[in-house]
Write a structure and sequence with these properties.
Elements (H helix, E strand, L loop, with lengths): L47 E6 L7 H13 L4 E7 L15 H4 L10 H11 L3 E7 L2 E4 L14 H4 L17 E3 L5 H17 L4 E5 L12 H13 L5 H23 L4 E7 L13 H4 L4 H7 L4 E5 L12 H9 L6 E7 L1 E2 L2 E2 L1 H14 L2 E5 L1 H5 L3 H5 L23
Helix pairs in contact: 1-3, 5-7, 10-11
Amino acid sequence: MRVAIGLCMVALVACSTQLPESTPDSGIPDAQVVPDGAPDAAVAPGELRGVWVTRFAYTTQAQLEAIIDRAAAANFNAVFVQIRGEGDAYYRSAHEPWAKRLTGTLGRDPGWDPLQVAIDRAHGHGMQLHAYFNVLSAWSAATTVPQAEGARQHALRAHPEWLAVTANGTNTDTEYRWFSPGNPAVRAHIVATATDLMTRYAIDGLHLDRIRMPGTAYSHDAVTTAAYNTAKSANPSLTWAAFMRAQVDQMVADLHSAVVATRPTAVLSAAVWGIYDRLPGCTTSQGFADYFQDSLHWLDAGTIDALVPMIYWSIEPGACTDWTALLDSFVTRRAGRHIWAGMNALDDGAWDFSQVRSRVLRSRDVAQGLVVYASSYLDANLARWSEFPGTTASPGVFFEPAAVPAMSWK
């Protein structure tokens, strides 16, 4: 069975691979007028064309600007730039310290503001900028949280009781330590952090990732356990899984309320497990049962504007990870909101644009847009970017620019 690393997830195993750094040069020709009858040129009005830019893709302003330039030249219309990874900030936060990756020291001002740079560069190209915000991943599992330089300390250093733990009181996830969504103080801190960001930065969207638990063994911290015991006393049929899903649901609802109150025109989206529930006869992992992520409920409840299911496999009819079948499982239950098809730029670790093209065309038929993982994979060979717009002689799937689709409820 195929397994592909994606936006901080693999639907069968945990993801821990860091992506290579980007390079600053572009080299993509300007798009030209599409000839009549070009096979890939027809675009329905409104199609989100996004690319994820992880925090591993850039360390300098020039690198970040160049990535956005390449995306604009390839006729993408939205960039999802990661600005919170593990309780840290790639922007001037009033609540969390500067990310260690930027300078080597947690809390040290890098002398530039990645989020503002990304906003300015994207808006300069007429593109949307979505602030890609890891919600519940708190710190690397491999290292302890260091003392930060400056006044703002990491939340887990100040509040170790906010850690999501198993029944024996420890974190056993090999990738991250996690915040516990069952603790109201945790949710309040994350909402305050997001509210501060949206108040001071002109983002077009807040894009949630890591909005789940690392597994069914979490989180038996004291506050969450006490809350569950109280809730179960009132409702003896309440299961641990249902209770924990409700805690993650509440985190999403709280962030939705913050968006409505602070930046109501901004889009709240979430990158979610690519398999909500298993296809018939399959034994893959699933977001609902294995990670307490009831993403379809957020659509039904109106607490999310768009889901981006991270379906990082090929179109392979009959397979348990068939991209088309998994996308359709989200689209048919979208409750009037948007589904942006998440896809890996690679197939089994290799570049195969015929698969990319097929996924783009399928998403164009049924979804409201797509997001490609990730800029680093495209930067591994800059010619990959140019295959999206193509040329006059051989127009690509993004040959013509497209507008971002409107959301009638916004």
